[in-house]
Amino acid sequence: MRVVIATVQVPFINGGAEALTEGLRDAIVQAGHSADIVSLPFRFFPESEILRSMQLWESEDYTELNLYEPDLVICLKFPAFYLKHPAKRAWILHQFRNAYDLREAGDKAVLSDNACHLIQEKDSFYFNQCQYRFALSYTVADRLWRYNHLKAEPLYHPPPNASKFYSSPPQPYIFAPSRLETLKRIDLLIEAMRYVKSSIWAIIAGTGGQYLRLKEKIERYNLTDRVRLVGQISSQELRAFYANCLAVFFGPRDEDYGYVTLEAMLAAKPVITCKDSGGPVEFISDELEGLVVDSDPQLIAEAIDRLANNRSWSITLGKNGQMKYDALALSWQNVVSALLA
Amino acid sequence: MKIKDSAGGHLTLDSLIDAIRQEARRRGDTESAPGTAPLKRKISSQIAHKLFGEIELKDGAHIREFLPLYGEEFLIIAYRTLLGRSLDSSGAQHYMAALLEGRITRWELLARLRLSPEGRARGFHLRRLWLGFMASMTYRLPVIGCIAALLARILALPQWLQFQSGQEMRLNHVERRIN
Question: How much is the ipTM here?
């Protein structure tokens, strides 16, 4: 079978979505099919560029591609869902959230009301054309139901290099790997560290647009000896930081999926997350695989203290997470079987 | 802030980070974590194998091995076989245009690569290359070339008809999908 994976990308941004796209392509090939990624750049600003991108994908007909027509097309991101093909399936990584939940949350800078309604209408129309709809997680499926009244089946996949994670005895630090962007809410951890009573550090890995603001915040709160931004790290360093930490903090706002949760579970570490974090809460139950609290720095600080003051309990929660990961039986084979069925 | 470690010594945040980084180095592997470095796009080894990995010509291979190859695939294998390296973008652009416009035949292109300084240095022996090259050059001769080309086309007619039949099937298939 010849499969095209249609998506969009912002050049030089290499996050979870890019890892997923390549993982999917490799898994389809391993299953004995031909697969290729078709990607176009996506400009999320200004509005006219977003609308142009929608028109561009609407005009794409993959029924015929120079006699190399695909038997099946899997669309991953907005507005790649708009292309034409009789065997079009969607594995929705996320919708264009500025037209949905982020707009509701007050982010109205990107889109006008008209553009927003147009996106919602077209999304519903083209999602309806798909043979099957899958979502990255329950969080994404829930958004589709809430805003477009369409159902999608959640389809989990493993994080990259899942087999390489390992665990070591906990050292006194909380680890928070993340792109440093507003939605990831790393501020919550920095502010929480002001209230943490136990002797414990916070190590934050990753880069992003909020780096300078977070650095300034750490200095402003006199937390330079307690919180450290280590910036870009290698995959091996990432796994080593996971392996040695006491717990992982991951408290984004309504995250689509979040490899961080799964990676912490693979490293047998408890996860401190927030009730409104979306994806992480699908995997972490309070006091079972970690701690789930309101997105309040003082409550996060309390959670950190609870784990720091009871290391054996922290280890138990981490092991629970590892067992839960095993029980989930996440595999690319399952993903490919579902998408190509 | 200093924290007592399990051995009774004092641990600082810097020494802890250093120790973890050393542990990572000991384990090897220095690629960047997702989200921390520019994306490196590459064809995965499985896909590369599936596309071109099956075509690995050995020294002394016959020129007919190139018969089923066209376009970019032909160029990739030609470069790898005769020059021992990947196709570069300038080569791809130059030769692809020449092939598509009919300014050069595949056999002439193979001969050019083989006669280039890189090709000579590699010294790959492709059997019957010169015969193919000479035949291609013959077509360029006035009168004789036209007759030779005509004869060659007549001889290739059965194969061409088979190809056309296949194309017809594909087009019908496409039409059905469109309608």
Answer: 0.84
